[in-house]
Structures are given as C-alpha cells and as structure tokens.
From TrEMBL:
GO terms (BP aspect): lipid transport
Protein name according to UniProt: Non-specific lipid-transfer protein
Taxonomic source organism: Protea cynaroides
Family: Belongs to the plant LTP family.
Its job: Plant non-specific lipid-transfer proteins transfer phospholipids as well as galactolipids across membranes. May play a role in wax or cutin deposition in the cell walls of expanding epidermal cells and certain secretory tissues.
InterPro entries: Bifun_inhib/LTP/seed_sf, Bifunc_inhib/LTP/seed_store, Plant_nsLTP
Keyword Secreted attributed: no
PANTHER family, A to Z: NON-SPECIFIC LIPID-TRANSFER PROTEIN 2-RELATED
Record Gene3D superfamilies: Plant lipid-transfer and hydrophobic proteins
Matching CDD domains: nsLTP1 (cd01960)
Amino acid sequence: MKSLSVGASAMATALMLLLLLLPTSEAAISCSTVVSDLTPCLSYLRSGSGKPSVSCCSGVKKLAATATSTADLKTACNCIKTAAKQVNPNASAAQSLAGDCGVKLPFTVSTSTDCSKIG
Ligand SMILES: *[C@@H]1O[C@H](CO)[C@@H](O)[C@H](O)[C@H]1NC(C)=O
C-alpha cells in the first residue's frame, strides 16, 4: 500500500512539473489570427442557412492546420468562444461549420464550449 501511494505522489509531481512546463512552449496562434481566419464565416454563422463560403472554409482549414498542439487548440477555442459572444452564431450552423468544410476541430464555435476539456 505504501509503495502505491509513493508512486501516486511521484506521478502527481511529474504531472505538476509537466503543467508548469507547458505554458513555456509558446502557442503559435493568436486570437487575431483565429478571428481573421473565421471572419469570412460570419454571415454563414449568423444566418445558419446555406453552406459556408469557399473563403470561410479556407479559413477554417487554415485554422485547423495551424492549431495542432493542445495549447494552440485551447487558445483558438478560447478566442472563438470570446468572439462567439459578440457574433451570437446560429448554434446549428456553428456546430456544423467544421464538418461542412470537411475539417475536424476538437471543439465547436459556441459560447458554451468548455475549452478546458481539449487535450
Ligand atoms: C439556425 O439555422 C437553422 C437553419 O437555417 C434554422 O432552422 C434555425 O431556426 C436557426 N436557429 C436560430 C436560433 O436562429
């Protein structure tokens, strides 16, 4: 039992070190990049009708290609969440945006996304 708890605390220490080290790896993405990538999607997100435009999808694809690390994805997710509060997107359009563009994103464009669950 004793060795088990030692193992667990060593693990916790390692995990804490990892968490401390992670933010030092610079996220290669900024909110302004994320927002400008998704700006062509605004009309689609607001109306919720039709399909996203080509320029919208190329922005989504660019975003998906840029945000590859967990840190990038969390940053992008938080940026999008903040932006979505201003845009107030149609929820179903926001949900299907990445899929409509043939891209997989680990989060949806929504005001209620839990960005801490990424990773
Ligand atoms: C979102 O768009 C869909 C499809 O156009 C529409 O049926 C739905 O009513 C819209 N939802 C809101 C909240 O505007």
